[in-house]
Predict the structure.
Amino acid sequence: MTKNSKEKCRTFGVNFLAVIVMIPILFPIYWLVVSALQSPQSIISIPPKLFPHDFSLYFVKKVFSEFGIGQFLFNSIFLSVMATFCTLVIACLAAFSYTAYRYRMRETFSKSILFVHMFPQILIIIPIYLLMSKLHLINTWMGLTLCYIAFEMPICVWTMQSYFETIPKDLIDAAEIDGLTRLKTLPKIFLPVALPGLAASGIMTFIGIWNNFLLCNTLIIDADKKTLPVIVADFAGRDNMLQGDVLAASLVVCIPSFLFALFAQRYLVGGLTQGAVKA
């Protein structure tokens, strides 16, 4: 066997193995989409059709018209965008302070911020509830947003810090010689250069907030203030909900984060890989 043939066989084997691994990962997503877009008659057919011929938006229209899922979609989008923006602003300022300034216990603060990220939310949800209750922030978007920011902040700060550290110090020195103060170098120098890292942090933060179930389910009481993941779980427990209704609602939950990550994919990959290597 020639060297070229061996290379082709190796490439075929790697691709075949990748397909085998991806099948159990992608099949649930495929089944969700196919089932949510079936008609009421075909979705209850036995045996279920793996490749149905007829598709319908019946269940998607139903969850919007009869169950008002549009309101909860707005809640999720508004809270996710607002919390992501606040997280990025605070994370950029924190990461900038670690990179541009030298002060006592700087390394200690940098490492201790991950302390919050070490604990699963389920372990500290009771102290969080008691704290929000004492602050009178139960059943408010303000309290929920603060918790979102607190839990997404550590990984966001560390991502931005590792990316800021790749920026050459010569750029900062040149900017200061030109008359920029140290703080003004953040919007003028750091952020434009670190745009891929900022986009990567924003994507991860947005998806983490969008998919968060526990915090909203614990802190929000009124149904009209809840987010999509919580409402979909409520749908699954109702007696009057059909299988297609729950699947259509689940599909609506997946679409925004999927589109958000799809359109910003090149920033996500570039931000994570470039931020992993220091200049």
User: Anything to note?
Assistant: Residues 3-36 form the longest helix (34 residues).
